[in-house]
Amino acid sequence: MKTEPVDIAAELTLLRDNSVARAQYEAASSGLLRLWYEALRESDDYALAQRGELGEPWASMSKDFGSLEDSFASWWVTTGRRLFADTVYNGQVRQFELKQLPDTDPLQPSIFVEIPLGLSRAQITREFHKLLDAVLGPEEDRARPRKPRRFYKDQRLKLPTIKNMLAVWRLRKQGIDWHTIGEQLMLSPSFAASSSDDEATAKEKRRLMSITTQRLHRMAGALIDNAARGDFPRVK
Q: From residue 126, how far is each of 119, 120, 141 by CA, in Å?
């Protein structure tokens, strides 16, 4: 099936003007999916998979996430939104006033229902399920959607930690000293040398800061490797 090219400018306008699409993007941009995207951009294995030089599990990851574009926003409108919108944001049940124009996402069709509040909860539930069956078809007859990518189920990493790991990785690629990276990112303020430190104290602080930074760098390497395999965020 031929896929129509995405009008990126129109999609970006939708993200700005449509409350549902905007909520999806904000959830994706501020959460784990954005960091997964950034980890993939640092992965040599992912780049090889994009060129068709690696098999599974990298190949299916490459197929799902695609070329990664020039920015997260561009990638989101061309690829991410169609694959992961329901993963990062499921929408909400809302009440509309009469004659209010509903603000909905065309990629996630909605129906608008009238619920007489005089009905019992049991009646409302029965009627609602009947309506859904009429609109969607019985549950057993519905086509199964693609299985979405999920985040690593045993992950315990916090967002700030993952951000620091990737920041350390990028700065080290620039050849910056370990302790300088730690000081720039304020990884451990107690290990940051000050003008009042004597030479021995400053040297010891640099050593401890370097250890902290090197540990995050090792974790970042594992994070990036696992991201290209489909396990994110995972460092073991």
A: 11, 10, 19
Match 């009440």 to its residue by tokens: 95
- Give mean pLDDT, residues 96-104: 65
pLDDT score recorded for residue 94: 64
How high is the pLDDT of residue 208?
Answer: 96
| Token code pair at residue 130 | 């009947």
Report d(CA 164, CA 168) in Å as an integer: 6
Number of compact structural domains in the chain? 2
Neighbours of 83 (CB within 10 A): 16
54 lies in the same domain as 164? no
What is the three-state SS of the chain?
Answer: CCCCCCCHHHHHHHHHHCHHHHHHHHHHHCCHHHHHHHHHHCCHHHHHHHCCCCCCCHHHHHHHHCCCCCCHHHHHHHHHHHHHHHHHCCCCCCCCCCCCCCCCCCCCCCCCCCCCCCCCHHHHHHHHHHHHHHHHCCHHHCCCCCCCCCCCCCCCCCHHHHHHHHHHHHHHHCCCCHHHHHHHHCCCHHHCCCCCCCHHHHHHHHHHHHHHHHHHHHHHHHHHHHHHHCCCCCCC
Lowest mean pLDDT among 88-92, 153-157, 167-171, 209-213: 88-92
8 in a domain, yes or no? yes
